[in-house]
Design brief:
With 422 residues, this protein is α+β, with helices and mostly antiparallel strands. Helices cover 35% and strands 37% of the residues. It contains three helices and 22 strands. It has helices at 2-22, 93-156, 162-222, and strands at 32-37, 40-42, 45-62, 68-73, 80-81, 86-91, 225-227, 232-237, 244-245, 254-269, 281-286, 291-303, 309-316, 328-336, 340-344, 349-351, 354-361, 364-375, 379-389, 392-396, 403-404, 416-420. Strand 18 (364-375) and strand 19 form a beta hairpin. Helix 2 runs antiparallel to helix 3 (162-222). The longest helix is centred in the N-terminal third of the chain and has 64 residues, at 93-156. The radius of gyration is 53 Å and the shape is elongated. The two termini are 73 Å apart.
Amino acid sequence: MRIFFALVVLCGCVALVGCRSKSPEKGETKTHSVQTTRAEKKALMRTIEQPGTLMADEHARLIARVPGYIEKMHVDIGSKVKKDQLLMELAAPELQEDVRLTAAKQRQAEAESVQAAAALRAVRAKQAEVKAGLARARAQLDRWKSEEARVRELVKRGVLDAQTRDETLNQLRSAEATFEEVQAQIVSAEAAVARAEADVEAIKARVEVAAADARRAKSLESYRRIVAPFEGVITERHVHKGDLVGGAGAMTLLRIAKLDPLRATFEVPESDATLVREGQSVALHLTGGLTATAKVTRTAHALADASRTLRVEADLDNRAGMYRPGMYLSARVVAPLPEEWTVPQSAIAKLGDFVAVYRVIEGKAVQTPVQLGHAMAERVQVKRWRKSASPEVWVPFDGTEPIAEKAAGLYDGCPVQPTEIP
């Protein structure tokens, strides 16, 4: 019993001594040896890395412009085709008949035009003949007027008798009637010429209409032949020989894609959108371990409303055929940032919902919240530091503030022994 009591007392003493050894002594402080640095103006290189995809440079969905049955198929999936190469032919007999009909109507209208031109020449010749007759009639009229005056005078003098006078007067009246008749014929000839000219113009218009109809029919008939809009590869085929295609709600017959070059497309966030320019180098990492280098060929220059991102495209040389549209990729663009004040990454302390640096003032580390910009692996941009909390005042860096090069292990107000990095 005595031995058990002694063991209990001994264990209690050991426990008491252990507790006292773990409690720190009040007033104990530790001076931290720190190296100090100052903000430096540097142009950091920003690495922008975003996922994307490869797309064909050009791609088209081919449909039938006119209804018909597929008569001939000249290509299949994977066929490489040239621009304007015949891909398939449709059977559409009604279109071919329409071509023949409109061509016949055009020939008919042209023949009528020839006839109308001949008729116009005839009436113009008749008009010229009538005008010539008018001159003869005028000459006869003038002759008999003069003769009538001469005979009338001779009758008065008794040289000629009254019968001669009456015969001369009758000749004058006949000449006057002939002259009036020829004048009426001229008016009629002019009207006939006007009608013939109008007929020629009307038939000329009919010829133009007939020619337009013939061209329209020929154009529609040409749609029976489906041709390649550009050089590329057939990537999809949805029909077979004998299928009825075209008409309302026309289905896709074939899809064609141009595979060289390909477009590497990716979206850049709003924060980096101003850093991307045409001509910048792009490193591409594709599925299957493939890599490539291209240059930024074009950007949208405007952010998408929904995603607030900038579309960027880089043309990728694919003459060797190594790459395929639809491949996923990772695009990396390294862009220079404008010169800004920077500090080492190690100088930044992340404290809850804010970040800070430790300025070294009179042998103490002063915790100072800061506003950051872009960051790189070793350095980060610093915009402003908080001079006071109430009222809140922020001031820009000017490169004169000594800052602890490493924030780890420091706290606000801890004593430090500074050594400035040369």
